[in-house]
Amino acid sequence: MVVENRCLLVITGAFELTGGIAASTRLAIYTLLDAGYELDIFALNEGNEAYKKYEKLPKVHFYAANKNKLRFTSAIWLSLLRNRYNFAFSDHINIASILAPAAFLRIIRYTVRLHLIEAVPPNPDFQGRLGMRFAWRLHASEYTKQEILKSFPDLKIDVVPLSLEPDQSLDAILDFTPDDLVLQAMDGETRKLQSRIILLVGRMASGEQYKGQDILIQAMPLILAEYPQAQLVLVGSGDDMPRIRGYAQAQPANVQRQIFLPGFVNNEQLNKLYRACYLFAMPSRGEGFGVVYLEAMRWGKPCIASRMDAAQYIVRDRETGLLVDDPNNFKDVAASILQLLNDPQSSTKYGSNGFALVKTTFSFENFSQLFLASLNNI
How far apart are the C-alpha atoms of 345 and 84, rounded to whole Å? Predict the structure, then answer.
């Protein structure tokens, strides 16, 4: 069956999953829908509950594989044989390998979004290399591109920076009244959050122990020595949460009472935490982009980040926040946080600058233009 402007999406998942890959895939979906494409979406890691979210989108046909890769692959190839597509898009080089034979046979051409940890040593594996080798277009952030080219210098990669999602409005976002928030601290007591909140939002996965939750916990005694009312809120969940909890529980009682690990929170609660925090700190050592920095900057918050990963392309040192030279050094991280706590005027300025940067450089409109320009650059 031939349908004008029809696109095949072969993805890990978008609406039932969390994290940067899912966020970038949602941006691609919104862009393609806005451009008038009808989408056939096959998601490997999403289940039947995801249908409720996809059915709200116009011109979308969704297939949930429930992590069954054989069924996933069979369904994709059956669709390729039955339908004719303008092109395909994939959010992961390994599952893009399913499309590689079809690309070799000139049945389909496909675009892949490259993510740092999947495409640099010790990855990619054979599947990942296959997915990259036969891709028609490769998209990545500037940092991810530069890191991948160290191992694959002949690849042609188009830089398409990520952005906020289209429903994350920036209109009058700075005009708000702080909410009263209550969370359970690590000592088991429930406490009201105050005005010196240090916030990190990030997945707690054993394979991604680089976001800096442990470093922030180690930094808290130094921070509390000057600001006893400072509070650390670490939002996120995953199989690495017990390790991070262990770091917090190993701290003295006066530190435990100021650390909060609420786990996963819904968007409403998350926005309240962004509004309430004094600063956002994620001294990561391996981020391929870092959409959470944009989310914090959307709320006019200064950011603490690292020079060791992609954050340096988002957080501009002494303009929208502070960059730490060594994110593994909790003393350096504590010193940067204290610098912002001691200088409210600069903190406010950095937050305002970050808001302006998101509104221009990291808008959804900018992402869409670059994404579509890459596809049209024949």
Answer: 58
